[in-house]
Inverse folding.
């Protein structure tokens, strides 16, 4: 059975023309399910693994709707999209401009770390879409620089991440500024109890869509783990990045300091690289991202600040220089490759310090990562420590079951 086309989803010719030029041919599962619901005017709570096209799932039908209306200079926005990070806000804005190139779509990014004056001026000229982070948006509301009285569509993207970052009270405040009735769409990579609780307070009779269970990894990502002594990690990373099959690589570290150190080490070895983390200014972060997107640098070294907020075509490899403590971040990190149906490789460098985090990742994804020994810095010692750690964990589990079932332990 063939997959329906975007044309069969009822999208207008201006939007279809833009999608054709971008190279989008078939809708993804989340788009197939969500676009008709959004177009029909229902509230929606949607869950899909990262990299499956959630942004297009809500922007395409809204661009379609907005393009049929008449607007004048200075009109307030009709669509408000809230995101947890500046990078994600800028990415969504780029998508809106791309998808709406033939629909005369007007949008504005409202985020911190960028001069507020140009944002206010853009709002004064009139916009259809506002893509915002909660903090800067509340600042502009208090300055009376933005009016939300005409907003008809409220979208929360990466809702679970907003809760993780402590934005729940800001989101609730902003929702109170948006009049009812409205259409409220909530998209999230994971559907936690906190996300559902938030949805219940800002949505009405929402339909629910989930196209993949939590903590799943796209099938077209090849996952590997390489055991290495900690002091040899930089050398192994350099060896990997100099291989011919590596086109664009995103390297994740656990801290800002390590990200900067790794980027400098790569530069010294002749690999064009840059770092992106929260200590960088917004202009520095955008410059690094632009250089990576255009291929001027081959490697972007980043913290989890961009684990969800970066959507760059052609990332062939994601390398976990340090395996994350929060196993769910592993899912989001490696989801930066193998996007839009492409194939990708995710490599985790594991030293002794990473063993417990590796076990957490394997437990979450419910599979053991493929061990790649064909590399010049393979450490049998680290591999042995993992085996010993796993054996000890199983023994503890068996002992716990024994205590729970035996009568003498029950007493």
């Amino acid at each position: 059975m063939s997959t329906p086309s975007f044309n069969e989803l009822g999208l207008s010719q201006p939007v279809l023309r833009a999608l054709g030029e971008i190279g989008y041919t078939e809708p993804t599962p989340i788009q197939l399910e969500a676009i008709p619901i959004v177009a029909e005017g229902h509230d929606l709570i949607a869950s899909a693994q990262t990299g499956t096209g959630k942004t297009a799932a809500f922007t395409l039908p809204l661009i379609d709707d907005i393009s049929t209306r008449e607007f004048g200079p200075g009109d307030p926005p009709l669509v408000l999209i809230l995101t947890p990070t500046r990078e994600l806000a800028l990415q969504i804005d780029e998508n809106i401009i791309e998808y709406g190139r033939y629909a005369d779509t007007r949008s504005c990014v409202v985020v911190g770390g960028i001069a507020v004056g140009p944002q206010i001026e853009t709002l004064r000229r009139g916009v259809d879409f506002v893509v915002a982070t909660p903090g800067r948006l509340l600042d502009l509301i208090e300055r009376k620089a933005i009016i939300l009285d005409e907003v008809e569509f409220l979208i929360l993207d990466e809702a679970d991440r907003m809760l993780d970052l402590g934005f729940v009270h800001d989101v609730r405040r902003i929702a109170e500024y948006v009049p009812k009735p409205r259409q409220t769409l909530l998209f999230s990579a994971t559907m936690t109890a906190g996300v559902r609780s938030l949805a219940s307070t800002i949505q009405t009779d929402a339909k629910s869509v989930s196209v993949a269970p939590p903590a799943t990894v796209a099938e077209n990502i090849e996952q590997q783990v390489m055991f290495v002594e900690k002091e040899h990690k930089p050398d192994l990373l350099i060896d990997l990045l100099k291989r011919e099959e590596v086109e664009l690589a995103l390297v994740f570290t656990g801290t800002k300091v390590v990200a900067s150190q790794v980027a400098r080490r790569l530069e010294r070895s002749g690999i064009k690289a840059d770092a992106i983390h929260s200590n960088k200014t917004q202009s520095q972060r955008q410059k690094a991202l632009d250089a990576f997107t255009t291929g001027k640098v081959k490697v972007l070294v980043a913290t989890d600040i961009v684990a969800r907020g970066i959507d760059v075509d052609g990332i062939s490899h994601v390398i976990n220089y340090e395996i994350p403590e929060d196993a769910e971040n592993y899912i989001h990190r490696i989801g930066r490759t193998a996007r839009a149906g492409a194939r990708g490789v995710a490599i985790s460098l594991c030293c002794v310090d990473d063993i417990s985090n590796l076990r957490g990742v394997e437990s979450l994804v419910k599979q053991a990562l493929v061990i790649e020994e064909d590399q010049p810095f393979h450490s049998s010692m680290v591999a042995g420590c993992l085996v010993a750690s796993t054996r000890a964990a199983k023994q503890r589990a068996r002992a716990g079951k024994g205590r729970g079932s035996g009568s003498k332990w029950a007493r």
